[in-house]
Amino acid sequence: MKFRYLGNSGFKISEITYGNWLTHGSQVENDTAFQCVKAAIENGITTFDTADVYANTAAETVLGEALKGERRQSLEIFTKVFGPTGPKGHNDVGLSRKHILESIDGSLGRLKTDYVDLYQAHRFDYETPLEETFQAFADVVRSGKALYIGVSEWTADQLRAGAALAKELNIQLISNQPQYSALWRVIEAEVVPTSKELGISQIVWSPIAQGILTGKYKPGAALPEGSRATDDKGGARMISRWMQDTILTRVQELEPIAAELNLSLAQLAVAWVLQNDNVASAIIGASRPEQVKENVVASGVEIPTELLAKIDAVLGDSVLRDPALTLESSPKQREA
After folding, report:
1. What is the pLDDT of residues 56-103, one digit of tens each?
2. What is the pLDDT of residues 216-230, one digit of tens each?
3. Structural domains in the chain plus CATH codes
4. Residues classed as catalytic
5. 156/144 Cα distance (integer angstroms)
6. CA neighbours within 13 Å on the CB side: how many for 167?
7. Which phi and psi angles does 98 have, rounded to 5°?
8. Model pTM?
9. Residues 292 and 18: beta-carbon distance below 8 Å
10. Distances (CA, A) of 297 to 38, 90, 211, 291, 302
């Protein structure tokens, strides 16, 4: 396992992060979740990402149990705040001071830790003054409950505004967590250049495009039993964008490129995002320990320029690049 600095800081994380969105407390039983976390640690992963909104706080609880007994100083534990949790009342959502300060205490209790290494704004909150949000984050950091601050799915302009406030408050905003894959490249035009200027790294989610880039979905074929495309708890909705025969066919055409590197298609997909020098880590999920063992192989892989060009040629106009798609990810009105 290789390690990279996160943003303009001295903080290192593993190139592969284990994330438990859509799995822990939801898709997989706790025993399997524990096995996946154990496999992650055994294969060199030290960085774990979750959020209070995942399975309405259950994912944090499962991760906390799974990491119990591990040396805390050897781990990097990330969580997020924004989405509705608990009974989902009028103050149980967003980035208000009240919600942030209450949420960090809840997360720490569920994760069984005194602090998180990175506390992230899960989305941009259009209904709370940014100054209020960052003052609350500063208080979380100064209380020792979080070491660093990050955000998720923020636009270039939002990152710039957040970084200015963080600097004013003497706290470190060091990361953004966007969706990024060979098929979804919307951060490349604006978010990545701005992040480099500001000293912010990307911790990217869905590097295999919700499983599409594994090649397991074949054009015209039945959906694999138990796959994300058959999951009615959110997985099927998330993956529907990519379930087109044109895209599925093009993914199959990546097989010779993966074979040239002695990689599976999933390993190729994870390695691809790590070629971007602004990406500090790729988040992988797993419903089986074997998936963790497979995907960590992508750490340290270097894809030659000519093969990167071949990937671009194969995927062609199936790739989404419009920066405006990041803007769409944060709700303009919060649901109470």
Report:
1. 999 999 999 999 999 999 999 999 999 999 999 999 999 999 999 999
2. 999 887 677 666 655
3. 3-208+276-300+319-327 (3.20.20.100)
4. 54
5. 28
6. 10
7. -60, -50
8. 0.94
9. yes
10. 16, 44, 17, 11, 12
